[in-house]
Amino acid sequence: MRRHLFASVAVIALFAVFDGVASAQAQDAGATSQDPPAAADQAPAAAQQAPVDSGGNLPEVKVIQQQAKPKPVKQAQKKPKVQPQPAPQPVVEAAPQAPVETSTSEVPPSNVKMSPFGASSIPVEKVPAAVSQVTATDFKRDETVIPQEALQARVPGIIVGDLQGNQFQTNVQYRGFEASPVNGVAQGLAVYQNGTRINEAFGDTVNWDFLPSNAINNITVMSGNPIFGLNALGGAINIEMKDGFNYQGAEVDTRFGSFGRKQVSTQAGQQVGNFGIYGAFEAINDDGFRDFSDAEVRRGYLDLGFKNAWSEFHFNFTGADNHVGVTAAAPEELLAERGWDRTFTSPQTSDNTLQLYQLNGTVKATDTLSISGNAYYRKFKQKHVDGNIAEAEECDNAPGLLCIEDGLAFANPATPGVNPDGTINFDPTAHYGSIDRTSQDADSWGIALQATDKSRLFGYRNQFTVGTSYDHGRVGYTANSELGIFQPRFVVGGTGIKFVAPPDDDDCPVPVEPGEECGSDDVTPRNLTTTNDYFGAYFLNTTDLTDRLALTVGGRFNYAQIKIKNNTDSEELEALNGTNTYNRFNPMAGLTYQLAPGLSLYGGYSEANRAPTPAEIACSDPALPCIIESFLTADPPLKQVVSRTVELGIRGEQGLGWTGDRLNWSLGVFRTLNTDDILSVADATSNGRGYFLNAGDTLRQGVEASVEYRSRRLYAYANYTYLDATFRDSIQLSSPDNPHAVVCDGAEDPLDDDAPHCVNVRPGDTLPGTPRHRFKVGFDYWLTQKWKFGSDLVALSSQFFTGDEGNQDSPLPGFARLNLHTSYDITDNIQIYGLFENVFDRRYGLYGTYYNAELANVGGAADTPPIEFEEPDEGGRQRSITPAIPFAAYGGVKVKF
To answer: Would you indicate the residue range of the signal peptide (predicted)?
Structure first.
């Protein structure tokens, strides 16, 4: 019901925008879908003056051209009309009036925001760090609806990882730092949308499936800038959405294709005088190529704006209601013997909903001083269902009864199948599993203020920015586990028997041995409330010491207070209660030097910090492990992570003759040292459970290179990253399912078959999941004035499995994937296109980890026909991977108004 209501509201809003667009188009009957919108000619003079630089919604001439590029054949017939700009940037010359011009030749904005919002932009050649920008044109190149895929193609150092087995909820990894939707992944990137931090309150996760791809105006990825606050260890990703000032027109895009893909995307924007309105909506249904990997995505965006010569304000809303099947990794033997579409334990689903309301604006107080503000409210809900194998067996001390995790299992006596004393009878014919359920109900709000002054400092050109922010988050978190029975295809069917906390030892229905407990707390339901309070204050100053040399200095003070309250009656879980406080000042400094027009050097040093999340703090006791994403336990204090980054580089932007061809390129080196890095590790004795710990120092260093070429008919790019991501300390980490693991130091009985197993990590060992070589290349070519063809290649080297931090096992092999895309303009308003993914149908893994073959055989016995996995003493490798999507083809029709 709520999906239909959400879709109805979005469609009604879009029809209102369509009506305004149609009225404006009727006044210019000669305009085509590729011509500049007529509304730009009808705006009053005040609305056509230079817009105030006010953050994520600020229009510039080049952005308007990006959304309404003239078609090649029309370029010579009708000169585009543009709004006057008092101080055009060098990028304007990248729009030559050539006989043939393509929509792929858009030059990224030449200014970069140095803070999440407001009038903090400086020219890219003055940024003392690596910067990459992805524009709306990059999304249109291959018609991707996955923002992560566009980032992977265009940004050196970024790759997409897939822990969950669904393309809508993949990880973005930049230089070995993650922005992931999965709790349990160490988050090392700060992500902003229109000036609002969108790392979720509970685990700093990032839900990329909430972003309507057609509503994204541009994305900036920047390293080495602590102004973006907590989590900016490896850098920051700043997403700016479209509005009615930088997009005019309307578009409907429908698509069908492999694995049941059906989708429709709509967007429309209009400027009327000093007001602008923009709306976008995407509805996507996909069955997925694996069992139970279907996705139903509904997401939309609406922006209402006002601007005049001295101010600009925007109110916007982002909404989403998504269901995603997260099929995760599967044993290599299962994929090889039963098919690439097989999954390992189901159901595994996530239901995510979002409401994000934002208000931001900038006022030009004087000719040099701008005041900006940003306020938001965010409502996020998530329900996660996870079918698992379970350590269920007949109790040694109570024959005929069921034990879980070596402890007596208890449930509500009123539940059918449960004994009056709460115990559960053991069925020797059953193949037991479990269904773990978690939920988050998060309310977040925040406010930020910023001032930017561009007055000269002692006669030098100067820009000074100072700001402050406050973010508050409150999360209600619950988790419980239900006894399940394995069915064919590793599906875990529910029994309705939900585990509860065991009674006190004195009330235990069976005798309790000295030193033992009546039951297991590992499956006890959790109910807790977490509260986050984050405060930040920052400054940033850029001074032109000479016409060529610019100095940037700044810093940010971060304060984080995290409270956790247990809402259950369990005395064991009272240890969850507590308050943790972290604070730090992070400095930055850098220089840029312009060697020649369009050629500059940069160098900088910066620090950043990440406070442990509530999920990490509440699951950091090795004595009480928890299921990552599920159960939380006591909270020994974790230290905050601090990163120190040094980088040097050179970048260039040159025109190549009178034809308007352009060449952009960059080359840089970087080194980031993390102190007290936080890792999640598997528990040595309890299957499927783990905990977080500070694992000493880790280092990420390497080289990045990129080149981009634009001509009248050809657009081409290539980028390469060499990444050396390593541990810097000797440490022993639990890894119970790695066949190469050894008995942990300090084990009570090293000769016991159930003794805990660990891997020994040495300085220089490579971090799992970090390919050393990353290469991307692609092009678009206009075969005719109406027909375009292009391709994109991603190639990654091998990576070590999660759980093989000691690098003793053979790594997950690298891969190369080729995608193709083509489009044909039937008329000025109608375009057909085709997309082809993994053209050579390569079979490879995107992520690797380990599983327990002995327990997996319980589920395997229920499959049809049964399947048996080899255990390590039989030569089994216990390796599981997330399989990549095989060959897929999609076709669509795009109509513009």
So the answer is: 1-26
pLDDT of residue 524: 83
Strands 787-796 and 815-825: antiparallel
Return d(Cα 558, Cα 536) in angstroms, integer.
5
CA distances from 678 to 237, 586, 674 (A): 21, 19, 9
Helical (H) or strand (E) element with 335:
helix 332-338
Contacts of 254 (CB under 8 A, 6+ apart): 263, 264, 265, 892, 893
Q: Residues of 824-833 as b/e, b for ≥16 C-beta within 10 angstroms?
A: ebeebeebeb
Q: Which two tokens stand for residue 8?
A: 């109805």
pLDDT surpassing 80 at residue 620? no
Dmax (CA) of the chain = 92
Query: Is the Cβ–Cβ distance between 156 and 175 less than 8 Å?
Result: no
Residues 853, 859, 862, 863: is their CA dihedral positive or negative?
A: negative
- Model confidence over 739-795: pLDDT tens digits? 999 999 988 888 888 888 999 999 999 999 999 999 999 999 999 999 999 999 999
DSSP output for 780-829: EEESSSSEEEEEEEEEE--BPPTT-TT--SPPBP-EEEEEEEEEEESSSS
- Of all residues in the chain, what percent are helix, strand and coil, respectively (each to 5)? 15, 50, 40
Output the pLDDT for position 84: 45
**pLDDT mean across residues, the chain:** 86
pLDDT range class, residue 71, cuts 50, 70, 90: very low
Token reading at 409: 């299992």
What is the C-alpha to C-alpha distance for residues 319 and 102, in angstroms, rounded to an integer?
Answer: 33
**pTM value surpassing 0.70:** yes
Q: Note whether 311 and 52 are within 8 A (CB).
A: yes
Sort strands 678-682 and 196-197 into parallel, antiparallel or unpaired. Answer: unpaired
CB 780 within 8 A of CB 715: yes
The residues that bridge with 327 in the sheet, in sequence order, are: none
The whole-number pLDDT of residue 707 equals: 97
Closest CA to 252 of 63, 75, 22: 22
pLDDT of 437 strictly over 50: yes
Residue 699's CB is within 10 A of a number of other CB atoms, namely 18
Measured distance CA(72)–CA(94) in Å, rounded: 15
Range from 36-45, 65-74, 552-561 that averages highest in pLDDT: 552-561
Q: How far apart are CA 778 and CA 709, in angstroms?
A: 11
Domains of the chain, with CATH numbers? Answer: 2-399+406-896 (2.40.170.20)
Distance CA 379, CA 356 (A): 6
